[in-house]
Amino acid sequence: MVRGQVYPAPSISVSPSVVVALGGNATISCKSERYQHMTFLLVKGTVSPENVMEKQAEKYEVTFSVSNARSLDGGIYWCCFVSALQEWSHFSVKAYIKIRVQVHLKPSIAVRPKELVPLGESATIHCKDENNRRAKYSLIKEEALDIIQEETGGRKGATFTIDNVTQLNVGIYWCDYKPDSGSLYSHFSERVYLNVTDHGFPKPSIKMVLQEEYPSGVNVTILCEGPENNLTFFLHKSMDLRASQETEPGSNRARFLVQIINLEDAGNYTCQYHKSGNPFVWSVPSNPAQLVVRESIPIIIWANVAAGCLLLVLLVLLLTYIFYRKRRKGKWTLCGCSTAKVTKQPVAVNLEPVAEAVPDEVSYAVLRHCSVKIKPTADQEGISEPCVYASVAK
């Protein structure tokens, strides 16, 4: 196979990682960067018929599966490809696959700094067995070809340091451990992300659609703009991630719709982006844009509540007044007598003059046929009689 090695070596990767749980699965990928339709060979250990798997590529890449992994599946893997003219590529680098029996509880894991690491600075990843046992810890990185680091830790666990961080260090990490007292391993920890900021990326811009104070309960549109298309933007408020959004098709801008719920939504907003090919390398943050929120909506709500209470009180008073008037509906004054309704009864008319008569003059007598107390009868017609004046000539 050494003869005729005219093509560059393909790349090899293992997903999710070179550390595979017993009974788990993994995928080995071999890829040519320039040549299509090649025949790829995956070799485990030394070249022999039983250690070689072969597959034709539809384009640039082929994948080989490791299913229901056994201990025998562990070992060193590498690949190459050959053309139809029997011209071979150089050998890829080696991938070291390890099969582990996992029985212990997974460790905790944390990365510092928690957010973004500027290129060239240091980062640490800390792993710890919750049972505080002395153990050997392994730091594992997604698609890395070998274990990144191994450290022995005591009750406080183990700390892995990555100095002078470069783009080669970015990615997804996790860890496991093996207690000193045995040969069995723990389950994998949770995943953590090591992201970096690259000051070589142009700084994005950010702006509010309308520069004004916003009341609570409305939506605000925030625009983030980058140097090129096909970017993914992240919107932060005071370093806390609020949302992520890809740029609009054929555009270098992303729109964020922020709903203002209370005064806590006010503050400084910034945005960052990464390119589609590398989600772990970010730009520096944009200059901050301030979102100002006023309390107009709560004031209006309290004013409406107060007005509603006042209207309710007035309505109760009005209903009370109408009810009181209905109770007194039948009572009205007739000729100065307080009575409801009168009946037609014989009335005694007193024709005596009120004062001493004067000869040759006309005297008047007022006929008041309202009795002091008159009880209504069942057949009353409800028609009041007017006062009658009679002139008496002597």
Task: Describe it.
- This protein has 394 residues and is mainly beta.
- It folds into 4 domains: 5-100, Immunoglobulins (Immunoglobulin-like); 102-197, Immunoglobulin-like, CATH 2.60.40.10; 205-296, Immunoglobulin-like (Sandwich); 333-394, no CATH class.
- It is built from 1 helix and 33 strands.
- It has one helix spanning 296-327; strands at residues 5-7, 11-15, 19-21, 26-31, 39-44, 52-56, 61-66, 75-82, 88-89, 95-100, 102-104, 108-112, 116-118, 123-128, 135-141, 149-153, 158-162, 171-179, 185-186, 192-197, 205-208, 213-215, 219-225, 231-237, 240-246, 253-259, 267-275, 281-282, 289-294, 332-334, 337-339, 362-367, 388-393.
- The strands form 10 sheets. Strands 13, 15, 16, 18, 20 and 28 form a 6-stranded mixed beta sheet that branches. Strands 3-10-8-5-6 form a 5-stranded mixed beta sheet, with no helix packed on it.
- It is elongated.
- Mean pLDDT is 81; it is low at 297-303, 332-345, 351-359, 361-367, 369-385 and 388-394.
